[in-house]
Design goal:
The complex is a heterodimer of chains A (about 270) and B (about 260). Chain A is mainly α and about 270 residues long. Chain A is about 80% helix and about 0% strand. Chain A is built from 14 helices and no strands. Chain A is globular. By secondary structure, chain B is of the alpha/beta class. Chain B has ten helices and twelve strands. Chain B has helices spanning about 50-60, 80-85, 105-110, 115, 125-135, 155-165, 185-200, 215, 235-240, 240-250; strands at about 15-20, 25-35, 40-45, 65-70, 75, 90, 170-175, 205, 220-225, 230-235, 255, 260-265. In chain B, helix 5 (about 125-135) packs across helix 6 (about 155-165) and helix 6 packs parallel to helix 7. The longest helix of chain B is centred in the last third of the chain and has 18 residues, at about 185-200. Classes of the chains: A mainly alpha (about 270), B alpha/beta (about 260). Chains A and B meet through helix 8, helix 9, helix 12 and helix 14 of A and helix 2, helix 3, helix 4 and helix 6 of B.
Chain lengths: ~270, ~260
């Protein structure tokens, strides 16, 4: 373990895993609770496309990623909200447009595409100090927001329309959640990557969802699973000399399978289907 | 949190020249509608008549294309509207709730009081006590600790009524509260509403397809068709076979049974 943490880049990676695990898990809980899981993959691809646009024009790729993911959230939110299109259709259209834009920009990038592909795959082992600060800020802000606004978040995440009718600013909270998801995806882009961030958003939250009926515990378990996925994946990558990002995703998938196997909610689920 | 002060002789709820459009189509046009304090107005009409639109417009879920909705004389689109809206609670139609949803019955009922409680303030014991009282009032106090999604449809509707009451409303909107429930649950919920109305003196707007409960539950009935009012009058006069037949475009008979008038389709 000492050798594992001896290298400076590994200490950065461990911290990045901690912050990304917490931030993604929190955003994932919202996505799972509000049945918006595909929004995660859509925002991730929007961030990826925005990052590539940034690279293409010589801007900061993270700024491009942030603008694109927030713009995607700003399109999906109202369209899904007003019922003009089904949320699935809105997300699907934005997702395919963003994927097309990303591949288009990738094709236009001159020379080797390493910088662009890094945004897609991420590299937690080369995460910079600035990326760490960004991830840490997002993770801490998310944790504080949940503590401060727990009751409002619970009301909106569990029954949004009723919360709105009772006088809570449910629409503003919903957009706040989308904004935070976009921010999380952007912050995770350099370390986890646009492709793998989706797994880190959904798997820990979905695993925790199998295990508890308490929202507070759901956030805690999801964050725990997110951190275990990241640090476990890093350890496996270190020991077996395999890609870190893929190891993280595989660990989070295994955690999900284990949670489903142990879930006390299986009976409740089958009752609902029956 | 200060509550609205009723102006003398003001109706509890008042709509003037209200139009609501949905996807460019007029879904509701109401020139004038007043509802006095403590009265129960039943709203009936076929699907698409505008019943749910009326309730959604009153509680602010739908924006008015034009017109004014007033609560005790205060404009619900004017300054302080968000506070005024807290005096109106909505009970929606029974909906499928994910049985795995991480919220207990008590937490769900408490959420009715969150807007009045304000930001950055934990729910507190007082709100928990009030929510528990409301659960007892609707007869499911023993289910407080259960996950909301594991309740039956009838129990979930009782929880929805308790949540609305925890909001401490002065006007209660009930949007087809017995739809999708079995016969026994329908009777139980309607009995529960009648009892609560008497005990709490609430002003109630009830959208329903249950014509046979109108006489026992409502003071007056409003018939809506294609988003417009067709007839309004005392509940005892509402069960008219010709009027209901025209409203629903169906053969309707009204018969007496055990001293009650019953609608047969």
């Amino acid at each position: 373990m000492d050798a594992f943490l001896d290298a400076g880049f590994m200490r950065h990676a461990v911290l990045a895993g901690l912050f990304a695990g917490v931030a993604c898990a929190v955003a994932g809980v919202f996505a799972v609770l509000m049945r918006l899981t595909f929004i995660g993959v859509c925002l991730a691809h929007a961030a990826f496309a925005g990052g590539l646009v940034g690279l293409l024009f010589g801007w900061d790729p993270l700024a491009g990623a942030l603008v694109a993911s927030l713009a995607a959230a700003a399109v999906i939110g109202p369209v899904a909200d007003r019922g003009e299109l089904s949320p699935d259709t809105a997300v699907g259209v934005v997702f395919s447009a963003m994927l097309g834009l990303a591949i288009f920009c990738l094709g236009l990038l001159p020379g080797p595409k390493t910088a662009g592909l890094n945004l897609f795959w991420g590299n937690i082992l080369t995460v910079s100090r600035r990326d760490l600060w960004l991830l840490g800020t997002v993770a801490v802000a998310a944790s504080l927001a949940i503590i401060a606004f727990f009751k409002e978040i619970q009301a909106v995440a569990c029954h949004r329309r009723i919360a709105r009718a009772s006088g809570l600013p449910a629409t503003a909270i919903f957009y706040g959640i989308l904004f935070f998801t976009g921010l999380t995806v952007t912050a995770c882009l350099p370390s986890v990557g646009g492709l793998l961030v989706y797994s880190l958003l959904i798997n820990p939250a979905a695993a925790a969802y199998q295990l508890t009926y308490r929202l507070g515990r759901l956030f805690f378990l999801a964050a725990l699973f997110g951190v275990v996925s990241c640090e476990g994946g890093l350890l496996i990558a270190w020991k077996l000399d395999v890609p870190a990002g893929a190891s993280i995703v595989l660990v989070s998938s295994l955690l999900f399978l284990a949670a489903v196997a142990c879930s006390p909610k299986k009976k409740a689920g089958s009752r609902a289907e029956g | 949190m200060p509550r609205l002060v009723a102006m003398a002789n003001e109706p509890a709820l008042s709509l003037r020249d209200v139009t609501v459009k949905r996807r460019g189509r007029v879904a509701l046009r109401m020139d004038a509608l007043d509802l006095d304090k403590g009265r129960v107005l039943g709203v009936i009409g076929p699907n698409g008549a505008g019943k749910s639109t009326l309730l959604a417009a009153v509680c602010g879920l739908l924006r008015l294309s034009c017109g004014v909705v007033q609560l005790f004389g205060h404009d619900l689109a004017g300054p302080g509207a968000s506070q005024a809206r807290r005096d109106i609670a909505l009970v929606m139609q029974a909906q499928d709730v994910d049985p795995r949803l991480p919220i207990s019955v008590l937490e769900s009922v408490m959420s009715g009081g969150y807007a009045r409680r304000g930001w950055l303030r934990p729910p507190g014991r007082e709100l928990a006590r009030r929510a528990s009282e409301m659960l007892e009032l609707v007869g499911i106090g023993h289910l407080a600790g259960r996950p909301l999604g594991q309740l039956s449809g009838g129990e979930q509707q009782r929880a929805a009524i308790a949540r609305a009451l925890t909001q401490q409303p002065r006007v209660l909107l009930l949007d087809e509260p017995t739809s999708a429930l079995d016969w026994r649950a329908q009777r139980d919920i309607l009995g529960c509403i009648a009892s609560l109305r008497e005990r709490l003196g609430l002003t109630v707007l009830l959208a329903t397809h249950d014509l046979n409960s109108l006489e026992s539950l409502c003071h007056e009935v409003l018939c809506l068709k294609s988003g417009r009012p067709l007839w309004r009058g005392p509940a005892r006069e509402a069960l008219d076979a010709d009027r209901l037949g025209g409203l629903y475009r169906a053969e309707v008979a009204v018969v007496s049974h055990g001293g009650r008038r019953v609608v047969l389709f």
